[in-house]
Request: fold
Amino acid sequence: MTLSVKKEYLRAIRDRYYNSSKKQKSLILDELCATAGFSRKYAIKILAIKHKEGKKLSGRSRSYSKEAVFHLRKLWHIMDHMCSKKMVAAFPIWLEFYQAPNFTLAVKQELLSMSHSTVDRYLTPYRARFRRYKNTGTRFAGKPHIKQIIPLKPFNQKVYRPGFVETDTVAHCGGSLSGKFIWSLTFTDVYSGWTDNYAIWGKGSGEVLSAIDYIDRRLPYEMVSCNVDNGSEFLNYSLIEYMRDVKKVDLTRSRPFKKNDNCHVEQKNGTHVRETFGYQRLEHEYLLKYMNEIYKDYHNVLYNFFVPQLKLVEKRREGAKYKKKFEKPKTPYQRLMESKHLSMKEKEELKRKYELLNPITLKREMSRKINMFEKLVERSKIESFKYETA
Reply:
């Protein structure tokens, strides 16, 4: 039997096969296998062609449209690659400002109805295309007696109000710590997660102290305690005098080589500094102005007012595993507004700032500024190369 004859024969019996009873189907299969020489399983498969088209698949129907998944991925980029729990908590705020083609009210409702596990399920294969890196520049203070003056941070310190801050520096050194380059100072409130960054030229005690004083004057709360690591930029008499005599603030330090003692600010070093400016070397002083503009006018405003943060409530060990319980994700702004330790005047000032902001506009402007900054960095590298080879 030629191929064309087989095709004609299959076309003739296909409809008859699907409209027959189970007993008749068995007889048709016997006939087909004997005539065409097919195996029984192959005969069943070949008869199913065109009859499966348009057939409803088994299992639960799809809950979310392709448009909703498309906008979910787009929002993930706009929201700076938040985790799913933070995204779900931030959707009611961000979606009020989000506008895009084909973003209808129905799609908005779909996004608002998503759970964090659903967001993870749709984003996990997509996230795999984007990645990250690491480096340190902490030089331990060379005067051991200073460590005796600054006490260690209490192991189980109870943070009950805004004002308990942690601070650290990040080196924009590329792959080498030699020479002078830009550093970022990170200031994080443990209670609310409110974070401020400031770029400085080198990490001398004078530059660090000036940056701390600048950030302190911009804080929406009063500083109560400040915890630092064991770097020489913090363990010095200038900072001790400033904290204890001028600000009347408790100054504590972390245990050496125990990053978890300063974990809140260490985490922000990644999310606020590295994810914004990367790991490249920034060795031109004029870049400071552009970095601080991005930090002050865009990045810190966006993250403090519109990006929810998870807060650990309980951690316990069960066998070989740790069980963690987190508070409902909230923005630092929301936590400060709920605090009883801020005055009505401070809260009104925060609310006034919040009502003037739009997270979508902030993110787009920040991305534009970062792109311009990266072009400046590339231009500075080319100019340095020309100078070195001249």
Summary: The first strand starts at residue 164 and ends at 171.
